[in-house]
Design a protein that fits this description.
Blueprint: H1 2-13, H2 29-44, E1 47-48, H3 56-59, H4 61-74, H5 78-96, E2 101-102, H6 106-127, H7 143-160, H8 172-189, H9 194-212, H10 225-249
Length: about 250
C-alpha cells in the first residue's frame, strides 16, 4: 500500500506512467533533474531503527547497479551533467537536513524496498529520452559548493514567489516586486561567472515545481502590504549578501 501510493505520487508529479516515457520532451533538462533527484533520494537515504539482520543497502545492490549502468550510458551527454547536479543536490540535502526510511517494522522496510525499486525502474525509463540532451561545458565549481549555492537560491526563489496569498490587504505581485527586483539584480551581477548557471538551474527548478504541485494555503496575514513588502525585501537583501559572501570565500 505504502509503495503503491509513493509510486503513484511519483508518476503524478511527472504527469506520466512508465509506459509514457518516450513522449517526454528530450530538451527539458529541468524535468530530467527532478526525476534523477527522486531516484538518488530513494537510493541514498539510510534506514532508521531497522530490525536485526535487515540491510537496506545490501538489498538494493541491483538497483544501484542499474543506476550506475545508466550513468555510464549517459557519459558524454548533457544528461550526465543533470545527473551530477541531482546527485550533488541529494547529497547536500542528506548531509545538511537528514532523513531516513523508518524501517523499524519489517513489513514497512520491505515496502520501502519495493517502492525504491519501482522509482528506480520507472525513473530510468523516464530518463531515457533525455540521453539526447547536448553536452555542456561545466562551470569550474566544486560539486559541494554548487549544490549549497543552488539550495540557497531555490529557498530564496520559493519565498519571493509564494503560491499562497500573503496578506488580505494587498496583491502578491505588488508585494513581491521589490524582492524579485533585488534577486534579479543579483543574477545580473553574477552574469558571466560560474555561479550564473547554477542560479538559473535553481530558478528553473522552482518554476518546474510550481507547475506540478498543489499547496494547502494557511490563512493569509492581515498586515499592511507595504510593511510585508519591506520585510521581504530586507530578508532578500540579507540572503543575497550571504550568497555573495559565500561566493567570495569558496
Amino acid at each position: 500500500m505504502i509503495a503503491a501510493l509513493a509510486l503513484t505520487i511519483f508518476h503524478m508529479f511527472f504527469l506520466a506512467a512508465d509506459g509514457e516515457a518516450a513522449t517526454r520532451d528530450p530538451a527539458d533538462a529541468t524535468e530530467a533533474r527532478w526525476i534523477a533527484r527522486f531516484i538518488y533520494d530513494d537510493l541514498t537515504q539510510p534506514s532508521c531503527s531497522a530490525p536485526p539482520g535487515f540491510s537496506r543497502e545490501a538489498q538494493l545492490i541491483d538497483a544501484r547497479a542499474a543506476v550506475a549502468a545508466f550513468e555510464a550510458r549517459a557519459a558524454g551527454t548533457g544528461l550526465a551533467f543533470q545527473l551530477a547536479v541531482a546527485r550533488a543536490d541529494v547529497a547536500y540535502e542528506l548531509a545538511n537536513v537528514g532523513g531516513c526510511w523508518v524501517d523499524d517494522d519489517i513489513r514497512f522496510a520491505k515496502k520501502h524496498l519495493e517502492m525504491t525499486r519501482g522509482v528506480v525502474e520507472d525513473g530510468l525509463k523516464m530518463l531515457t529520452p533525455f540521453l539526447a540532451l547536448p553536452s555542456l561545458a561545466l562551470p569550474a565549481l566544486s560539486a559541494e559548493d554548487a549544490a549549497a549555492f543552488r539550495a540557497e537560491v531555490r529557498d530564496l526563489e520559493r519565498d519571493i514567489r509564494p503560491m499562497c496569498t500573503i496578506t488580505t490587504r494587498g496583491d502578491n505581485a505588488v508585494i513581491t516586486a521589490p524582492a524579485l527586483a533585488e534577486a534579479s539584480r543579483f543574477r545580473q551581477r553574477i552574469a558571466g561567472t560560474p555561479w550564473a548557471l547554477h542560479y538559473d538551474l535553481a530558478e528553473e527548478d522552482v518554476v518546474f515545481q510550481r507547475r506540478r504541485v498543489m499547496v494547502d494555503c494557511a490563512n493569509p496575514r492581515d498586515e499592511a502590504p507595504d510593511a510585508v513588502s519591506a520585510e521581504m525585501l530586507a530578508d532578500t537583501r540579507r540572503r543575497v549578501a550571504a550568497l555573495e559572501l559565500k561566493m567570495r570565500t569558496d
